[in-house]
Amino acid sequence: MKKIALLGALALSLLSPLTMAQEAKALRIGIEAAYPPFAYKTPDGNITGFDYDIGVALCEEMKVECKWIEQEFDGLIPALKVRKFDAVLSSMSITEERKRAVDFTGKYYATPAKLAMKSGAVMNDVATDLKGKKIGVQRSSVYDRYATDVFAPAGAEIVRYSSQNEVFLDLSAGRLDGTIADSVNIEDGFLKTDAGKGFAFVGPDFTEEKYFGEGQGIAVRKGDKALADKISAAILAIRENGKYKAIQDKYFSFDVYGK
């Protein structure tokens, strides 16, 4: 029996380097799959969207396997810190505040924030036009922070939700007066749908770097420069070889990468 146990232990020790090598070829990516057109579920339950396709292309470029792990947006950074996954690819804006908690790759897209309200609504001056209005935001997003700092002092009531889809549901149902979010997400995920009929963009683009950062990037754990650099190089590679444009053209009719 001792010999069998010893042989078993020896076999495991011989297999462990192979197992470790296989694990090293997998990149565990955290994503919130409730943010169309960037990440959402197909009717059969599979994740799809711009973020997802970009992730697949990056993994192919780096010759690693993508392992996708779903997580609500406000839990993505905490889960990254406790090593539930290795990176976050979920339309996360690169801001100075977040840089204190995680490291980022270079951006992989950059689109402005917008406010959507009932068609015909006017917003010439935040300080007066939003007073008494209920504005829905996704909790812990850059839009939450901006609305809290700018809209709330103007007299708006900020209502927070776990996902932007929940915001759209309440906006359509008349429980909100408006929402601030990524312009593409609002347009494709709401205004172009039946639920979004009778709503429109109101006011200017919101692009203040203090709140909205320099674009959307992929987050890694603080200090993991090697992984951040590897993914950044892969982003540049898929932009150069045409894969990025092919994915972009699948979802958008304009350049989302920005300047």
UniProtKB/TrEMBL annotation:
Which part of the chain is the Solute-binding protein family 3/N-terminal domain? 26-255
What domain of life does the native source organism fall in?
Bacteria
Q: Which GO terms describe its cellular component?
A: outer membrane-bounded periplasmic space
How far does the signal peptide extend, from start to end residue? Answer: 1-21
Pfam families documented for this protein: SBP_bac_3
Which key words tag this protein in UniProt? Periplasm, Signal, Transport
- Extract the SMART domains matched here: PBPb
**Which InterPro entries does the protein's record reference?**
Lys_Arg_Orn-bd, Solute-binding_3/MltF_N
Instruction: List the subcellular locations.
Output: Periplasm
CDD domains, per database record:
PBP2_HisJ_LAO
What family does this chain come from, according to its entry?
A: Belongs to the bacterial solute-binding protein 3 family.
Put simply, this protein is called L-arginine-binding protein /L-ornithine-binding protein
Organism for this UniProt entry: Phytopseudomonas punonensis
